[in-house]
Amino acid sequence: MDVEQTIEFILSTQAKSEARADKFDKRLEAMRKLVETGMKMLVRIEKNHVELQKDFLESKNDFDRRFKELVEAQKKTDQKLDRLIDSWTKRGSNGRRH
User: Residue-wise pLDDT tens for the chain (98 aa)?
Assistant: First the structure.
């Protein structure tokens, strides 16, 4: 058995193992950064989603309020129009009331 060849084999195997370990560490670090970046993006997306929901609800509430105001204004207009029509129908053709 040649001791020198055995030592070279061991050193070569160790160097290859270290190279694979370094490559693995670099890939692991890249994946860690990718996951970290993805998590930051998810946090930003969630914040934007919450803001959009808040804006939507405020807009919806504003729309609902304005719609109710419009309905009330329309009711008042209808009542006034009904009174005007009633007053016209109660008059005679010569402008006198019946």
Answer: 699 999 999 999 999 999 999 999 999 999 999 999 999 999 999 999 999 999 999 999 999 999 999 999 999 999 999 999 999 988 766 655 55
Nearby residues of 90 by Cβ (< 8 Å), 6 or more positions away: 97, 98
- In the chain, % helix, strand, coil (3-state, to 5) comes to 90, 0, 10
Does the global pTM surpass 0.70? no
Token couple for 46: 């969630």
Alpha-carbon distance 40 to 78, whole Å? 56
Residue 45 Cα distances to 13, 41, 55, 64, angstroms: 47, 6, 15, 28
